[in-house]
Amino acid sequence: MSSKEHQILAIIGDPQKIRQEMLDFKRTARTFSSDKVHLLAKYRKQWVAAHDGKIVAHAAALPRLLQILDELGIPRQKAMIRYIDQNARKLIL
Amino acid sequence: MLKGRFGDTSGRPYLEAKIFLPRLNVSGDISFLVDTGADTCILMPSDGIRLGIDYALLRGNRECQGIGCTIHTFVEKAILVFSDEKAVYTYSVDLDIHALDASLESVPSLLGREVLDRWSMNYNPSKNQLTFAVVTSDATFPL
Known about the structure:
By secondary structure, chain A is of the alpha+beta class. Chain A has helices at 3-12, 15-29, 36-43, 62-72, and strands at residues 46-51, 54-59, 80-84. The longest helix of chain A has 15 residues, at 15-29.
């Protein structure tokens, strides 16, 4: 293993653990890809957080949503957050 | 093969990654919007806040030209990590971090060409297929 690879490994940690954490997050992310109608019907114009593969919180504003995550003991870094709106602004990036 | 998704209520292409900002001792998971029109990767405010970045510690000032205006971003050394069933792939990048701006809270972070140029991409929304074959990486760790 090269010195560069050693340096990177020292920062990211165990690749097997990384892989498992990423699989968990992908499962959480797909919460926002698999149930469009339900999300729109229930959380329109809301900030929504998912963790561990399911919706765990919602709020009208982002700061409040993050506060709820903290109250629930859910690590923000492992949660996924999106604003749900059918007519969200068009993005031209 | 990395697998992305078409997400949210918008149909936009996303890919999940793990991000490490060593100087700030910050790490976490991100769902990036795949953006072949972006030269670099940019971390937007909602992700920055969620990850717990202390914006007072940020430095650097890079101009980024977008439609309508030029923005100034902070720049931070970062490692982006992606994985499939075979390996973990890492990329060292100079990550642009957008300043806090409530009007941009709903805009997702962007995965730009400094990473995308190192893959080949299959983009086929009609078949719900979004996959990436890794061509090169800064470091690959087999699983």
